[in-house]
Every structure is written in structure tokens, then in C-alpha cells.
Amino acid sequence: MSHAKSGEDANGECRDSKSRVTIVGSGSWGSVAAKLVASNALKLPSFHDEVRMWVFEEVLPNGEKLTDAINKTNENANYLPGIKLGRNVVADPDLENAVKEANMLVFVTPHQFMDGICKKLKGKIKGEVEAISLVKGMEVKKEGPCMISSLITKELGINCCVLMGANIANEIAVEKFSEATVGYRESREIADTWVQLFSTPYFMVTPVHDVEGVELCGTLKNVVAIAAGFVDGLEMGNNTKAAIMRIGLREMKALSKLLFPSVKDSTFFESCGVADVITTCLGGRNRRVAEAFAQSGGKRSFDELEAEMLEGQKLQGVSTAREVYETLNHCGKLEMFPLFSTVHQICIGRLKPDAIVHYRNFGPNPKL
Ligand SMILES: NC(=O)c1ccc[n+]([C@@H]2O[C@H](COP(=O)([O-])OP(=O)(O)OC[C@H]3O[C@@H](n4cnc5c(N)ncnc54)[C@H](O)[C@@H]3O)[C@@H](O)[C@H]2O)c1
Ligand SMILES: O=P(O)(O)OC[C@H](O)CO
């Protein structure tokens, strides 16, 4: 991979011997990713110290631009207040400028913005560049679902690994131990470079040769988290919530294998699988907002609750539930996925929140 190379290229020009990393995104997880990568970039001789972070520009209540504030205080006051990112993190509001020197790109924005970001970067990524996506979500195109790593590869012409796991950003920000999974398609060497760049004593990263399985785990668990939030909002108790998590995990596995038969069973036992289902259903934002939705009897909209409760952070589960529903409807498989299809119908008000347990086909299903 390019980061280890040095000397002159075929035209006799001097080649940079070190890798440059840019983080595309600066929400709560984007900021924690910057912190993890920045601490390792300082320690590892094969990386430039500076880590650029593209920031979707916003203005703070005091009138200051978010980018200027990050560069002055070394903190992201909007999305990760109180946490120093590392002095080698440089916030940049200009997307093209932020990526132009980088040969390692870390994509970490809410999934609904990735199509626009890829369109802006199309034709702008030159040379040997590797990418990794921390984005939990997918796009649904006319031809069917498109994982974010595939979108990046198709639009930008670069290889893309993924990093998913039981990773609530605020906990990793204060260096509480957790694990993550890097999914890769071909090169184990590239996966190992990403593992090296993200690993710290409190963040243990494992590579898995199953990019689709890892990415679908990270994507689909957000729908299960919405279901868990409904259960909490209706005070249905721990047994019901555990049942929803089990059924959800089973539907995650079945849908992943339906879309990509190569997906491995073992992936669901990695951090990206069962561990992420557990943490998201216990402590995630999707769960929290879905709980409030159920408490309102479905009368308040997710958009309204998201704006009120998350202060600019974005939910992924509601749009993913819609995308999953569209995908299943398109291929005539809705009845095989009662949990996923019910979550969407509750989100759009077609069913009441208590419908989350109101049907009988959660038992053994020979088709799953
Ligand atoms: N927060 C977590 O705990 C966590 C953990 C693991 C994975 N993830 C995943 O990481 C991804 C990024 O989430 P996050 O938590 O860093 O973000 P966030 O929800 O904390 O913040 C939202 C981000 O979107 C940006 N934004 C708003 N409008 C935009 C636009 N029009 N174009 C581009 N960007 C815009 C905001 O500036 C902000 O940076 C998501 O897919 C999420 O599921 C999040
Ligand atoms: O807060 P959520 O629901 O977006 O979940 C955060 C992470 O994905 C948990 O791993």
C-alpha cells in the first residue's frame, strides 16, 4: 500500500514516504475517530502527524464558525464538547481542500449525506488512495440497495474497507474500553493498516474478511434499536426487549445473506454484530428517540423529536427502516421480515407502537 513507499516515482519525481489521513465528517463519532487516528498518527512513523478533518460548517451561538472554534480550542463544541481531539487535528470547511493531499480517507458522516459528498468529490481523488467507511447506513437506488462502501468505490474509484462495532461515541471519547471490527474485501495488508491506525489500548480492532457482512450489521442494527426504543417507551420490560434483540439479530443475518450470500455467520459474533445490537439497544440515540416516540403514542414525529433531543446529531434507524422496507417490498420478501417491516410501518404512523409485538410469525421460520 502507498503509505509505506518512498523515493521517486516513474517520472523521477519525489514521492512522499508517509501517509496523510483525512477524516470526512465531524459529528460525534467523526470527532472521536479524529481523536483515535490523531493519537496514532503522532506515534506511527509511517504517517504524517497532521490529520485533517472536514467540517460541515456551522455557526456557534456566539457567532463564531465551528471550524475556527475547533482549530482554536481543539474541541468540537457542537458534537463532542469537553474532549480534546489532539493538537494535530486541523479542521477544514472546504471538502476538496481537506482531501486533496490525503491518501487515506475516513468517511464518517450520517449516511443521508454520503451521496452528495461522493458527487462533490467525483473526479477529485487522484493517485493511490484508500478509504474506510464508518458510516452505518445504505442508499437505495433504482437497481436496489447500495452499501456506502460500494457507493464510495463506484463514485470515487477507490477501494473501501469498513469499521463498525459496539461504539457509542461518548464512551470511547472518554477512553472506556470497547471493540470494533474492520471489514475488508481483498487486501489483508490494507485492513491491517486501518487496524493499526485506529487501535489503542482502549479500542481493540479486529479485521474480518467480510466487508458486506460487517457493513450490514452496522446498518441494520439501527432498525433493531428503534424497535427496542418502542419496547422501552411502552415499558414492556427486559424479556420483551431481549426477544426483540434476538429476533432483530436473526433478521439482520437473514437479510444480509439474502443480499450477499457470501456473508459469514461468524461475522454476527464480532463486535459489529451481537455486541453492537446490545449497546445500541441499551444506550444509543435511535433507542432514545424511539422511546420518546412510543411515549407520545406515535403522535410526535421522529423529525421533531430528533431536532428537539439530539441538538444537530442525526438518527439513522428511521431512514434505514424505510430503505429496508423498500428493498423487501421490491423483492416480495416483506413477510419474511416481520420486525423490520413493522418498525417502518410504526415510524410512518401506519401502525401503533405496540404493534412491535402484535403478530405471531416471530417463531422459528424455516426460510430464515
Ligand atoms: N455517534 C455515535 O455514537 C456513532 C458510533 C458509531 C457509528 N456512528 C455512525 O457514524 C456516522 C456519523 O455519525 P456521527 O455520530 O459522527 O454524526 P452526528 O449525528 O453526531 O452529527 C451529524 C453530523 O452531520 C453533519 N451535517 C449536518 N448537515 C449536513 C449536510 N447537509 N452535509 C454533510 N454533513 C452534514 C453535522 O455537521 C454533523 O457533523 C453515522 O452513520 C452513525 O451511524 C455513530
Ligand atoms: O446512537 P446510535 O443509536 O446512532 O448508535 C451509536 C452506535 O452506532 C453504537 O455502536
Automatic annotation (TrEMBL):
Catalyzed chemical reaction(s)? sn-glycerol 3-phosphate + NAD(+) = dihydroxyacetone phosphate + NADH + H(+)
Quote the record's binding site residues for NAD(+).
G25, S26, G27, S28, W29, G30, F56, F113, A169, R285, K314, Q316
UniProt GO molecular function? glycerol-3-phosphate dehydrogenase (NAD+) activity; glycerol-3-phosphate dehydrogenase [NAD(P)+] activity; NAD binding; protein homodimerization activity
Q: Which residues cross the membrane?
A: none
- Show the active-site residues: K221
The residues listed in the UniProt record as binding substrate, with positions renumbered to this chain, are K136, R285, N286
Q: Which InterPro entries match?
A: 6-PGluconate_DH-like_C_sf, 6PGD_dom2, G3P_DH_NAD-dep, G3P_DH_NAD-dep_C, G3P_DH_NAD-dep_euk, G3P_DH_NAD-dep_N, NAD(P)-bd_dom_sf
**Domain annotation Glycerol-3-phosphate dehydrogenase NAD-dependent N-terminal: ranges:** 21-186
Keyword Oxidoreductase among record annotations? yes
Alphabetized PROSITE patterns for the sequence: NAD_G3PDH
What's a single GO BP term from this record? glycerol-3-phosphate metabolic process
Root EC class: oxidoreductase
Per the database record, which ranges form the Glycerol-3-phosphate dehydrogenase NAD-dependent C-terminal domain?
Answer: 210-357
UniProt family annotation:
Belongs to the NAD-dependent glycerol-3-phosphate dehydrogenase family.
What's the protein name? Glycerol-3-phosphate dehydrogenase [NAD(+)]
